[in-house]
Specification:
single chain; 277 residues; 7-stranded parallel sheet; two-stranded parallel ribbon; 9 strands; 50% helix; globular
C-alpha cells in the first residue's frame, strides 16, 4: 500500500532525496521548504502526487497549519520526516547567543513542533512512522561542533522518550544518524562563528581528519530510508554510513571503562542510606 509522507527541508540534500525516492515508487508527498521554487521540477514530473508547502519550521503556528493542510489534502499521513536543519561551526567560546538559539530553534524545536502537530493525527489512525534525521554528532561530539551536537543530543533524548510513549498507539519512531555526506550541510546552509586564534589548532586537526574521510553519496539515502519505513520492526536508531559503527564500539567501551573506574565515587555520592538500599 502506498504511503503519504510529510518531509521538511525538501529543497535540497537529504530532504530532496527522500522526496524523490518516495515519489519514484508511487507514494505521495507533502514536501516543505522555505522556498518551494526548487520543487517545481518535481511537480512537473509527478503532478498531484506532490504537495509543495512553503514552511519555516521555527514558526510553530505555520507548522501546525502545514501538517493539517497536508493531512486534509491527502486524507492521511503515514511517514513524518523531520529533516530540516543546518550545521553550526564554532568552538563553544566562539558561539553567539543568536547562533546557538538559531541552531536549537531549527534542529530541535522545529522537529518538536512538527512531531507535536502530527501526533494527534497519527494516534487517531493508530499508525504512522516518525523519522528524525539526527547525526553521528547525536551520538558523539566533535570539537568546534558543540552547538550542533547539543541540538542533536537534545533531539535524540526527546525521541527516545517519544518512542516509548507512542509504541502503544501503533506509531513507530526512528532516529537516522548519518555520517559525512556530499551535501551542502557545511556550506552555504551552515552558520559559522567568528573564530578565535586560540582554537586554530583544534580546528585544523578536526578538518585534517575529515579530509581523509570518504563522503557518502546522497543519492543512496532515499532507497535506504524506504527500507526502514517499510520494515515491520524498524530500528529506533540506524546509522547512514559504514564508518560510525566502529567508532561507537570504541566510544562506548571508553565510557563504560570510565564509569566502572569511578563506580566507587558514584556509590559514595549516593550516601549511606542509598548504598544500603
Amino acid at each position: 500500500m502506498s504511503k503519504v509522507w510529510f518531509v521538511t527541508g525538501s529543497s535540497r540534500g537529504f530532504g530532496r532525496e527522500f522526496v524523490q525516492a518516495a515519489l519514484g515508487r508511487g507514494d505521495r508527498v507533502a514536501a516543505t521548504a522555505r522556498n518551494t521554487d526548487s520543487l517545481q521540477d518535481l511537480v512537473a514530473v509527478h503532478g498531484e502526487a506532490i504537495l509543495p508547502l512553503a514552511l519555516d519550521v521555527t514558526d510553530k503556528v505555520a507548522v501546525v497549519e502545514a501538517v493539517q493542510r497536508a493531512h486534509d489534502h491527502f486524507g492521511r499521513l503515514d511517514v513524518i520526516v523531520n529533516n530540516a536543519g543546518h550545521g553550526l561551526f564554532g568552538a563553544v567560546e566562539e558561539l553567539t547567543e543568536q547562533q546557538i538559539r538559531g541552531q536549537m530553534e531549527t534542529n530541535f524545536f522545529g522537529a518538536l513542533w512538527v512531531t507535536q502537530a502530527a501526533l494527534p493525527l497519527l494516534r487517531a489512525q493508530d499508525s504512522g512512522h516518525i523519522v528524525q534525521i539526527s547525526s553521528t554528532g547525536g551520538v558523539t561530539a566533535f570539537p568546534t561542533l558543540g552547538g550542533y551536537a547539543a541540538s542533536k543530543w537534545a533531539l535524540e533524548g526527546l525521541t527516545e522518550a517519544l518512542a516509548q510513549e507512542v509504541a502503544g498507539f501503533g506509531i513507530k519512531v526512528t532516529l537516522v544518524e548519518p555520517t559525512g555526506f556530499a551535501t551542502d550541510w557545511g556550506g552555504s546552509s551552515a552558520a559559522h562563528a567568528e573564530t578565535l586564534p586560540a582554537y586554530d589548532e583544534v580546528r585544523a586537526a578536526l578538518f585534517a581528519g575529515w579530509s581523509q574521510s570518504t563522503l557518502g553519496d546522497p543519492a543512496a539515502v532515499g532507497p535506504a530510508l524506504l527500507k526502514i519505513v517499510d520494515a515491520d520492526n524498524p530500528p529506533l536508531r540506524v546509522f547512514f554510513g559504514a564508518e560510525p559503527l566502529g567508532m561507537v564500539h570504541q566510544l562506548y567501551a571508553e565510557r563504560l571503562k570510565t564509569w566502572e573506574q569511578w563506580a566507587g565515587v558514584a556509590a559514595e555520592a549516593q550516601g549511606a542510606q542509598g548504598a544500603q538500599g
